[in-house]
Design brief:
Blueprint (H helix, E strand, L loop, with lengths): L1 H12 L8 E10 L27 E8 L6 E7 L5 H15 L1 E7 L6 H9 L3 E5 L4 H12 L4 E11 L2 E11 L11 E6 L14 H11 L9 H30 L10 H12 L3
Parallel strand pairs: 1-4, 4-5
Antiparallel strand pairs: 1-2, 2-3, 5-8, 6-7, 7-8
Length: 280
Amino acid sequence: MYRQAIRRLIDEVAETETFFRAGIVAIDITEAAPFTGDRTGHEDEIIGTKEQTDEYAYQWATVQLVGNAVPLVLDARPVRKGESRLEIVEDLLDSAKELVHVDNVLMDREFDSQHVLEMISQRGLSYVVPKRMQTSEKAQAERLLQRDQDRYETDRKLHLGKNEWHETTLIYRRKENSEHDDHRQYSVFMSNRGGGFLREYGYRWEIESGYRSIKRFMAATTSTDFGLRFFYFAFACLLYSIWRAVDLLVQVELTGEYERSPMVTADNTLTLLKKETGIG
């Protein structure tokens, strides 16, 4: 149902000359509000929280348009216990490619698996993803620190199994105003198109601001029911996407062009929705 709704939305905005069915997508996982108590019947859906506490949470995965395109949530899905990151990314990319032409994929470090990266490369897509630092990366960062070097690139082969390897480029970048005095001054990224694509990773942070906006559209609930909570999240993602699509249409109508800073507010959209449908 979500995919059908977002397709209709994209078909509408695609009639303008300012929206192109192509762009950069970002894949991420977010947590639902944590809870405690009885988990009977939902053991396969409860993942836990990213913090080590006695609370539990459902997790949702999304793929969003970022960059210069209008920010739309192309798909949202639950994360179930036992699912691999490869399965999640494949599913979301399949959904995204049915709607738009995907050029580049941005992900968080929890997706730094070589099998995920190989799958993306096999699809002919480029990627940028931060790498979790292992012993060799920490040692290299320490050497860069001693040389007072801000940036460094090196090719790396990641083992896929048997005699198969995934070729990538590691990009070390020094953080600005870091409070640390060791290897933690550096971040390490991986890309199959070299360091020139690293600047695009900044677009991934749009997901964080997007999630904050999505929460404004979410209905409050004390229920721990898996299906209900996911419906509320997916519906909020759809409302957020409607808001950004309406904003694009209004901007194009009034100015003939599109700027990413919204002209229409989320509150305006909620008010209009309530007036037209009675929801809200």
